């Protein structure tokens, strides 16, 4: 359903600076003319070890997930059992939030999910973007796509390879947007419109490299594939 736009947004739904910041910081340039203050809605997130798949090793500060050999995690009902995915501890609702992530992997999935999303199977109910409980942007060298409830939407590749992906969640406005961030340029990649009825948990998935005739590896570099939350200070 079409979400309403708040007074703090431009006509196309992009968030703008609604009030004077007591500690102003440099704003990114969005589409050459509009301003997007990435710090206004910045939130501090941490990865939830109780949801992390056994192939995901979390950093001590719980802001980076690396694809490695089996971890000795205890059994937990919220843990992803068959898919290399992890949720954040924080559930987001009744507000506007922004975060950024960087990664190195053959592909990565970034998005949000309700806590009710499946965890134990390898089917659509447990895969980010393949069910009604989650929304995701899938990034790879070959292309980008957005997915919700199993519906796949192609996303044009940004002209410059992004160093980060920004995620803006407007819960009361019913909007989830993904941004390509390169140097000081921010470009919107895709926006979902929905009515969010439960807290949303930032979610990440890391892809495995699969080669025909060979068993899959946990990474395709000398160092593990990873996804990492970026500091917003």
UniProtKB/TrEMBL annotation:
One of its GO terms (molecular function) is zinc ion binding. Residues 25-225 form the B30.2/SPRY domain. Gene3D superfamilies: 2.60.120.920. Keywords: Metal-binding, Zinc, Zinc-finger. InterPro entries: B30.2/SPRY, B30.2/SPRY_sf, Butyrophylin_SPRY, ConA-like_dom_sf, E3_ubiq-ligase_TRIM/RNF, PRY, SPRY_dom. It comes from the Eukaryota. Residues 1-26 are annotated as: Disordered. SUPFAM superfamilies: Concanavalin A-like lectins/glucanases. One of its GO terms (cellular component) is cytoplasm. This is B30.2/SPRY domain-containing protein.
